[in-house]
Amino acid sequence: MSRTVYCQRLKKEAEGLDFQLYPGELGEEIFANISKEAWAEWQKKQTMLINEKRLNLMDPKSRELLEKHMREFLFEGKDVDIEGYTPPAK
C-alpha cells in the first residue's frame, strides 16, 4: 500500500516515497515531507545540475552545493537555475 504525505514542494497531499532515498536527517525530512512526483522533478534538476557544473560527487564541496540546491528546491520552492537551460514553455 502506498503512503501519502503533504508534499512541501507541491503544497498538496501526494503519494510519498516508498523508502528513504537520501541519508541522514535531510533524508528523513525528504521521506516525511516530499512526494514521489516532487522527488522525480528534483532528480531531473539534479542531473542537469551535475552535468552543467561538472560536479564530482566524491568531492565534499560538490555534495554540499548539490544538497543546498536540493533543500532550496524541495523545501523553499526555489527553482534550480541552470545556465544555458531554458525550461519548456508551459
Class derived from helix and strand content? mainly alpha
Overall pLDDT score: 92
- Stretches where pLDDT falls below 50 for ≥5 residues? none
What is the architecture at the second tier of CATH?
Answer: Orthogonal Bundle
Q: Tell me, briefly, the overall form.
A: globular
Total separate domains? 1
Cα separation of the termini: 33 Å
Oligomeric state of shown chains:
single chain
Can you count the beta strands? 2
What share of the residues does DSSP label as strand, in percent? Answer: 5-15%
Arrangement of strands in the largest sheet: 1-2
What would a concise description of this structure say?
The protein is mainly α and 90 residues long. 49% of the residues lie in helices and 9% in strands.
Characterization of the model:
With 90 residues, this protein is mostly helical. The chain has a single domain, classed as YggX-like, CATH 1.10.3880. Helices cover 49% and strands 9% of the residues. The protein contains 3 helices and 2 strands. The protein has helices spanning 24-33, 36-53, 60-75; strands spanning 4-7, 12-15. The chain has a two-stranded antiparallel sheet with strand order 1-2. The termini are far apart.
Keywords:
90 residues, mainly alpha, YggX-like, two-stranded antiparallel sheet, 3 helices, 2 strands, globular, iron ion binding, Fe_traffick_prot_YggX_sf
Fold topology:
Layout: E1 4-7, E2 12-15, H1 24-33, H2 36-53, H3 60-75
Antiparallel strand pairs: 1-2
Helix pairs in contact: 2-3
